[in-house]
């Protein structure tokens, strides 16, 4: 039942569509040629690299805050046996 409903719905390659649309807004009518030199894997790989970079910055900030909290707590609790 579930697979039948999935088959009946049309699927859209949003990665390719979004990249072509975004380029078309900047480049204009020549953007249709952009697709011939770019694969959806290129778009996905680049997007993943950017997401990993952004996530790494967030994680690094959180790790810095955690290190500060742990250091402060260590100093607070240094006299406990």
Distinctive features:
mainly alpha, 0% strand
Can you characterise this structure?
This protein is mainly alpha-helical. The protein has 2 domains: 38 residues, no CATH class; 43 residues. The chain contains 3 helices and no strands. The longest helix is centred in the last third of the chain and has 37 residues. The termini are far apart.
Proportion of beta-strand residues = under 5%
Question: What would the principal axes of the Cα set say about the shape?
Answer: rod-shaped
Average residue pLDDT:
78
Instruction: Tell me the number of helical segments per DSSP (H or I, 4 or more residues long).
Output: 3
Taking pLDDT < 50 over at least 5 consecutive residues as the criterion, the unreliable ranges are 1-14
Portion of residues in helices?
over 70%
From the N-terminal CA to the C-terminal CA, the straight-line distance is: 63 Å
Q: Helix and strand string, N-terminal first? A: HHH
- Taking all Cα atoms into account, the compactness measure Rg is 24 Å
Structural class: mainly alpha
For the secondary structure, the number of strands is 0
**Number of separate structural domains:** 2
Described by strand count, sense and barrel closure, the largest sheet is: none
């Amino acid at each position: 039942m579930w697979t039948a409903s999935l088959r009946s719905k049309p699927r859209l390659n949003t990665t390719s569509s979004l990249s072509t649309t975004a380029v078309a807004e900047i480049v204009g009518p020549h953007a249709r040629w952009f697709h011939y030199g770019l694969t959806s894997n290129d778009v996905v790989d680049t997007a993943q690299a950017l997401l990993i970079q952004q996530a790494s910055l967030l994680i690094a900030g959180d790790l810095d805050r955690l290190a500060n909290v742990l250091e402060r707590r260590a100093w607070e609790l240094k006299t406990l046996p």
